[in-house]
Amino acid sequence: MEKNPKNIVDTHGRIHDYLRISLTERCNLRCFYCMPEEGVQLRDKSEFMTAEETIAIAKTFVDLGVKKIRLTGGEPLIKKNAGIIIRELGKLPVELSITTNAVTVDRFINDFKQAGIKSVNVSLDSLKADTFNKISRRSYFKEIMHNIQLLLDNNFHVKINVVLIKGVNEDEIIDFIQWTKNVNIHVRFIEFMPFDGNNWNWEKKVSFKEILEQVDTKIGPKFYSKIEDQANDTARNYQLVNGLGTFGIISSVTNPFCDTCNRIRLTADGKVKNCLFSEAETDILGAFRSKQNIEPLIRKSIMAKHKERAGLPDFSDDDIHLYKNRSMTAIGG
Ligand code: SAM
Ligand code: SF4
Fold first, then answer.
1. Domain 18-331, second-level architecture
2. What is the per-residue pLDDT across 150-196, written as a single tens digit (0 to 9) for each?
3. Does ligand 1 come within 6 angstroms of the Cβ of 33?
């Protein structure tokens, strides 16, 4: 990788050039593994970054060698002025992308195009309306499927994120994979991860190993193959023989991918988190508002990054329930 003397590098030599910005903690869905039914606790608007602050802070990261920015949340497309943020960030010399539940994607297709977005990640945990609506506690299945098609029709690279949970949607693994046979879509199964308030336990996840066992039994080893993973990719990727799309597995719980981690997270309230699982946060927004130089704060946060998963014990450890973190929606997934 090209070195920039200003790059943000941690004590393990990892260059951090990928920023994930959460635009809001709020969401128009209530996926039970992510959000409490009543939504997030409302906080005063002044606690969150405005569109202008988000753009200015993102520019500092780009000066420090960030090459890729992903917008996430909560649901990024419900942020006031989301279109302006997308278009302004699109002017920076970065690969811009977004993770969305796609409920309102039809209103943003032109903003995505203007911003040069090429790839969109959409969360969809079931191909059955009933199951999807139960998981998300809302009824937008039809709109989401329509918007996925709209993205494909407009030539976006579409990745589908599927969080697998025992007894909920593990019976749909093969249906999701069959979808990739004739459609150029990229399905990624994600192991269910523990966050505050999501009632996680070790037994509820569907592991990397269990997913591949299903694929081997129901599809057969001759009918799919491993494909090359991109640098810093969090998924191990596969393809059906003659498949147009691909499928992958993100195994953050049973097989973390920390050795090549290049990610920095900026929460909607302007805190830097050096890992999805870290309890520690650095208040960048406060410093920015009081006109301090935020660069040393960003570097200090990344220098404190642990080698693996914020230094937590293995997720199979009994003490894992003692670990405290924000909910996923308040971090920015
Ligand atoms: N609202 C957008 C969406 O759903 O795509 C963006 C934010 S969402 C928090 C980002 C990703 O995190 C989604 O793909 C979601 O499925 C995933 N996610 C949320 N909670 C999770 C958990 N407990 N374990 C694994 N993935 C989770
Ligand atoms: Fe909203 Fe995304 Fe969380 Fe579902 S996963 S509740 S869509 S933030």
1. Alpha-Beta Barrel (3.20)
2. 999 999 999 999 999 999 999 999 999 999 999 999 999 999 988 77
3. yes
